[in-house]
Specification:
five-stranded mixed sheet; about 200 residues; Immunoglobulin-like; 20 strands; mainly beta
């Protein structure tokens, strides 16, 4: 038999938050079998609040080892990263801006007309955190814009994240509204989220 463990959020949790791992017992051919599992932490940085469910509390920044057992069978230890809490997020550039479009015939070259939108997260572990951007054009009958490199990016080591708003060829929108959203590992929105950017298109 063996015990398979899955940690939420890739084994990352902010201090003072709780998280709940999952596990199952497997037989020799890899099928799940009924078994009562019990959880324990091998480090004081992580406190198991309920040994039957594995719900645990992150107490100190660092790493911790988590283990499950059933009877005399123990799982491999799993490493949990305990991160300092993020405090908030904000715009790193002016949240209201104007994009001047050179052509005057209501069309635009998508390769030359783009604007950078940036956000910044504040707190202890602001690197490699997910920021989701979404863009809405007004009026919505014009071609949608593209967010580059993609609509979800990771923060850099200084907590900043960037996307470029690129217009498509065709009729121009009057404005573009971009929202930037960050969530904590357990799903709650980070204070200051979403950040809203309004871009006026000026032919």
């Amino acid at each position: 038999m063996a015990i398979e463990i899955v940690l939420p959020d890739s084994g990352r949790v902010e201090i003072t938050d709780t998280f709940r791992p999952s596990a199952r017992a497997l037989n020799g051919v890899g099928d799940s079998v009924q078994a009562q599992l019990f959880w324990s932490s091998l480090d004081t940085t992580l406190q198991v609040l309920d040994s039957t469910t594995g719900v645990s509390l992150a107490k100190l920044v660092g790493t911790a080892r988590l283990q499950a057992r059933t009877g005399k069978l123990f799982s491999n230890t799993q490493t949990v990263q305990l991160l300092a809490r993020l405090d908030s997020m904000a715009a790193a550039v002016n949240p209201r801006d104007t994009l001047d479009v050179t052509p005057t015939d209501s069309t635009v070259d998508s390769l030359s007309n783009q604007l950078t939108i940036a956000t910044i997260a504040f707190g202890g572990a602001a690197a490699a955190r997910r920021v989701a951007y979404a863009a809405t054009t007004y009026p919505d009958s014009v071609p949608a814009v593209t967010l580059l490199p993609r609509d979800t990016v990771l923060t850099a080591t200084d907590g900043t994240a960037f996307v470029q708003v690129r217009l498509h060829a065709g009729p121009l929108p009057d404005s573009v509204v971009v929202t930037a959203t960050m969530r904590k590992f357990h799903g709650d929105s980070l204070p200051g989220s979403p950040v809203i950017f309004v871009v006026e298109i000026k032919p």
